[in-house]
Amino acid sequence: MAAVSLRLGDLVWGKLGRYPPWPGKIVNPPKDLKKPRGKKCFFVKFFGTEDHAWIKVEQLKPYHPHKEEMIKINKGKRFQQAVDAVEEFLRKTKGKDQASSHNSTEEKNRRNSSEERGKQSAGEEKRKASLSEGKVKKGTGEGKKRVSSVSSERGSKSPLKRAQDQSLRKRGRPPKDEKDVTIPESSTVKRVMTGTVAGFKWPPSVSEPVKDSDPHFHHFLLSQTEKPAVCYQAITKKLKVCEEETGSTSIQAADSTAVNGSITPTDKKIGFLGLGLMGSGIVSNLLKMGHTVTVWNRTAEKCDLFIQEGARLGRTPAEVVSTCDITFACVSDPKAAKDLVLGPSGVLQGIRPGKCYVDMSTVDADTVTELAQVIVSRGGRFLEAPVSGNQQLSNDGMLVILAAGDRGLYEDCSSCFQAMGKTSFFLGEVGNAAKMMLIVNMVQGSFMATIAEGLTLAQVTGQSQQTLLDILNQGQLASIFLDQKCQNILQGNFKPDFYLKYIQKDLRLAIALGDSVNHPTPMAAAANEVYKRAKALDQSDNDMSAVYRAYIH
């Protein structure tokens, strides 16, 4: 196929990693973002997403010639929103072009009018000169020369053009041709998501603070380079990590949900057990992305909403596992996880050779290892995949998934992980994900207890709690987590986004993990005592921020 010439401002289809082609626009990169070495590439902003990246020329196609082809192979909702955004952008651009053409026509008319007035003026001067020829013959030639000079000057340039030239000459430089003007970032892009795609916003530039993103996670987009080594560019909200060698433990980023509207759902039948705060959001996103899902929950009424959305109902965990290819589970604690697998009509009774089980519960390494052993002993395949996040991130499909166990099963879950999360990590053998998840939640729980401690100390020393929050939000600790949890406390709103009883459970398990390797965890131990106090005050089913009440009672 003949090479197609591309340039700044062109609309294109860009191939980003494993994703299908996605509509974007070639734009100027941020000033401090270096162009990757190697093959020629362009910096592309993708419509309908928050992604932008360096894309190699061979991975780009012009938008219009390939539009129908791409629409046929991509059917996702977000893909259609992205195409709608492109069409809206084109309509607005066309409107601007028409306005520009109209202005150009008016300028031409004014120029022609000026020339006509110049000619009329010249004719009038000639007539006057002719009438006075007998009286002032000596001055006639000079008069004609003067009139001719004036009319020529007036006819060659419009008043607007002359004023522009004079202004430029005053500044000491010649008039600049329009072709030399650097193409600015069109303001149309920023307004493009009105109407059907109003929720979309281009990401801010590198120099601007990233808004509405979770600072608990680094925000990187993988630079498109020849090297497979770790190479980050801090330019978007999405976290993309190159695979890196770390002995027996490998970390691999799965597909981000930046373009999860274009997900091709697996043809495997998916089961899901447990529709709590996290599970509900996960199932909703699986269904939205076109997966076939069978659900079960201990309280059957919770299944009704998902049945209305297209899910199938399983009567028991064993039935779900036996009728599905991959079954996910997300329950509260180690006991619930074991009961689900080993109890009456449990998961184990439905396991047959080739059946797959993915446990997304946050439990200890010993529990998950035991479950893996019994599943594999029946010929099944096992993956642990606890998730970092809260109810809101679950609903938004922005969880971080930590996986370990069967690597092939991890790959088979790719479309599911894209639907439910922004990033997934593969951490090697069973037990590694459980350990990492407990460490993450230990840090989070300890931080929450420290926030509550600081707010109460401010109060008892006569300081404004709101001012403390304002100060923290302007410093290095600023984050969505900090702001949201402080707002919960200041407003007295402890509606659960992450149950207090579960963060206390995770702290307890993290402390036990430290004990198992003789590693001190005094900060976590202190925080754990505060949460235990809050539980004694009947705060178990409130949000973790309700730990504040342990300090004021």
UniProtKB/TrEMBL annotation:
Molecular function as annotated in GO: DNA binding; NAD binding; NADP binding; nucleosome binding
Keywords on record: Chromosome, Nucleus
GO cellular component: chromatin; nucleus
Main location: nucleus
Highest taxon of source: Eukaryota
Region (Disordered): 92-188
SMART domains named in the record: PWWP
Biased composition (Basic and acidic residues): 92-145, 162-182
An annotated GO BP: transcription elongation-coupled chromatin remodeling
Pfam families associated with the record: NAD_binding_11, NAD_binding_2, PWWP
Keyword set includes Amino-acid biosynthesis: no
Entry's localization field: Chromosome; Nucleus
Ranges where the PWWP domain occurs: 8-66
Family (UniProt): Belongs to the HIBADH-related family. NP60 subfamily.
Protein's name in the database: Cytokine-like nuclear factor N-PAC
Organism from which the protein derives: Platysteira castanea
